[in-house]
Amino acid sequence: MDDFRLKVFITAARTLSFTRTAERLFISQPAVSKHIGELESQYKVQLFMRRGSRLELTGAGETLLACAERLADDYRCMQYEMSLCADAPVGELRLGASTTIAQYLLPPILARFTTRFPGVRVAMMSGNSDQVEQALGGHGIDLGMVESLSRRQGLHYTVFAPDELVLVARTGGPYSRTESITADELREIPLVLREGGSGTLEVIKAALGRAGIRIPQLNVVMRLGSTEGIKAFVRNSDAMAIVSVISVVDELRSGVLRIIDLEDLPLRRDFAFVHVEAEPSALVRQFIEFARADR
């Protein structure tokens, strides 16, 4: 996208932090404020507001974010389609993806990619975010896709797509009429959580930490290594779970599971590409561009 100010704004709107925006875009925090200020002056609106220590989008900010994301998607699609005027790529691409991405986000992208580029052989391993990053460090894969908040030194991360974690329970259980619960009430709820090293668990820990709650204070009745296992457990028990919203689309449509709002406990994160080299190979870049244009 040619207007770097919009890239700064999109990043700030997703992270709700000028500090993290500066870190991700490798610019100073005053530069972030300057770019946001220029947009506010241009459109004569306030894009962000502070509520206590928290940064929030205004209504105008929400409108600009929706428009800016459409522009960014169209620009990526244009860049990718024009790149196809060059020779079609060939070779082997070794991918690693964290569990949620491997199960719910990546399969349709891989199906379309291998159809479009039959000369590319794709191999994929799946594990939690920590295992994917270890595989990169050991040169077992060319490109990873992770969901964790932490950033490991020596690896390079590029945001791919936003995600939200939601609290779910079975529809016919004791919480069938519960619309929302507070962070404090969450301490008493029987919960199923992911295993250590999971990006999902890392996001939950961070969000609860901001609310003054630690994992040992929760009523954890089971830890499982996959989202499918967690969903099956919840369907057959009175426990709740916190999972990615993309993992429960079918269950929500069929009415098997329902979402219960967590008051004042936002659980948002970004899925990210991660690779070792600052400048990845041409085939890795080709897949990244395809995946971003295919969203």
UniProtKB/TrEMBL annotation:
Residue ranges occupied by any HTH lysR-type domain in the UniProt entry: 1-58
SUPFAM superfamilies membership: Periplasmic binding protein-like II, Winged helix' DNA-binding domain
InterPro entries: LysR_HTH_N, LysR_subst-bd, WH-like_DNA-bd_sf, WH_DNA-bd_sf
Keywords carried by this UniProt record: DNA-binding, Transcription, Transcription regulation
Domain of life per record: Bacteria
Similarity remark: Belongs to the LysR transcriptional regulatory family.
Designated name of the protein: LysR family transcriptional regulator
